[in-house]
From TrEMBL:
It comes from the Bacteria. This is Methionyl-tRNA formyltransferase. Residues 5-157 form the Formyl transferase N-terminal domain. Pfam families: Formyl_trans_N. InterPro entries: Formyl_transf_N, Formyl_transf_N_sf.
Amino acid sequence: MRITLVGSRHFGVTTLNMLREHGVSVVRVVVADADDRLAAAAKAAGIEVQVQANPKLVVASEIDPDTDLIITAHSHARIGKDALAAARFGGIGYHPSLLPRHRGKAAVEWTIKEGDPIAGGTIYHLADRMDAGAIAAQDWCFVKKGETARELWERALAPLGLKLLADVIDYAKVHKALPAKAQDEQFATSAPSLS
């Protein structure tokens, strides 16, 4: 399986490392900022790095032409329809909530702010609407009393995202397809940015 990874920061690097350890070929890394730590990690591993022309949008020319699957890991850029069409299986991303709950930015912060006793993570198909694509995998965890968003992310949600991504990749290797279950819109929330 040939992956183009679109991402940034620490979660982008840990996702890159997990993919390489998981026996898939990361053929290109796409970043919004050439100085991002994910770009440095990719270059150190001998992986081609592509800097987005527009930090809010990834286009087909930025995806490696032999890509089976696009994976996003801490990317705030939309993956254009043309880019998704350039990959055999399209694209998936990790969102640190039980989609469709807490779509959009600051999902972990909203989990804490809303006092949710349960949090979770979702691997979802990238689509036109933010965080609204079909669910490929999902799992949950308890939120500890008094836990901050950062603590919840580091303790449970980041590791959960890596596990779910690995599970979906394993499924795709065996079945030559991605699992997909439509999100139930009656449970959707979309919180504004925290200020």
